[in-house]
Protein 1
Amino acid sequence: MTLLKSIDKIEEIRESKKTKLIKLVLTVLYVTYAVIFSFCATFGIFHALQQHQINEVGVAVNVSSHVKALLQVSLDEIVRKETDQVQQMLDKIGKRMHACSNHLKSSFNDSSPQNVNENLSNTMKLIFNNSSGIVKEKLRDYSRKRLIVYQRGMTKFLNDFNKTLDKNLKSIQIKYASYLQSVATNKWFKFPQQLFMEQQLLQRNPLNKVTDNLAAFLTWLEIDKVQEIFEIKKMLMER
């Protein structure tokens, strides 16, 4: 009986060890699963939140290309209108010269042979020798009037264009600056903010916050074309 009890007790110990081992394995598996699940959930939430910020950064970087394209279209339109005005002026001058030539030919054909040389000589003197010749004076007067009208139109167009351009660029720059400031102060960039400020401190340029040198911080984050976009308005106005 004692032997049987000892055997039973040994079996119970073995069963107890197996049970504990199984529980330990199950516990390890559960903890591993919980850790993996928590990591996946955290990564999914981070990706969902960060994706919106990444998309906004991409839109901001593309603003420079879009603004440059719009400006190029406007400048091309100005050049086209100027070319059309000059071409119209040249066409009208050519038509007047052609009319004068036809008039001379008609006068020549209507004149008798005896008066051809005299009429031709008088006409040529009237046109070329007299400093206030009719054709020359008419052409000068017409060109001067057309030039004044053209200059007034171009001045008005350029003034209106500059006002509209200045207003639109100012609005874009304000929105862009506000957006960049919100990006730079985003809590996801807290660690890069600390690194940047420490780097500035080592360079003897201490900052109270990253927005004190926003352009440098964004360039440090490798967000391109920030400074160029802010200088577009200045470059265009100087041009």
Protein 2
Amino acid sequence: MSNLEDLYREVILDHYRTPRNKGELPPPAVCTEGSNPLCGDEIQIFLDVRDGLVHDVRFTGHGCSISQASASMMTAAVKGKPVDAV
């Protein structure tokens, strides 16, 4: 296995074991959800948008390590970004 593959695996496992931004945001946060009926993954995303920026973002859900790590990485990537860039 290459060093890059090892790095990807480490990042995914880190976000799965220690998810960033896990939890709910209270109203007036916007909430949307999605699921994959084939594998049973379910994710809810909560967004607090202020002045055109993603002020805060959280997620809840359950599923495989890839879906949970992806949600964690996505929340870390979009926090503080302009909504039109997300």
